[in-house]
Amino acid sequence: MAACELRGELKYRDGETKEFVIKAENNLKSILAGVQKMSKDASEVLTELVLQEKGSVGNDKGVDDEEEEESDEEDDEIKTKNGTKASSTEPPAKRTKTVKS
């Protein structure tokens, strides 16, 4: 059987490219195995990029993450008309209708 190859290309933000080339035989089973290998290879490269980006972002913020989380919790609390606090994730309290005679 004739050999074929699967090709893929990953383009980075800076314009550089990484090429993935997987040789396969000319049958469905071999092509599927090649696609799985290419997927695994691309996942490894992308995982590495994500870890690098998290590392560079994490170093910029430092200890401020805890302070930011606390201020987010304070922002989530909303005072209602009767002075009680309600979380923004909860539905608003039911209003009672007063009937004037």
Overview of the molecule:
The protein is an alpha+beta fold. It has a domain of 57 residues. Strand 1 and strand 2 form a beta hairpin. The protein is elongated, with a radius of gyration of 28 Å. The protein starts with a strand and ends in a 14-residue tail after the last strand. InterPro entries: GON7_meta (IPR027893).
Q: Return Rg in Å.
A: 28 Å
- List the total number of helices: 2
Broad shape: elongated
Give start-end ranges of low-pLDDT stretches: 61-69, 71-78
- The helix fraction, in percent, is 40-55%
Number of strands: 4
Biggest β-sheet: count, sense, barrel?
2 strands, antiparallel
Coarse structural class: alpha+beta
User: Biggest sheet, strands in spatial order?
Assistant: 1-2
The end-to-end distance, rounded to whole angstroms, is 94 Å
Q: Classify the beta-strand content into a percent band.
A: 15-25%
Q: H/E element string?
A: EEHHEE
Mean pLDDT: 76
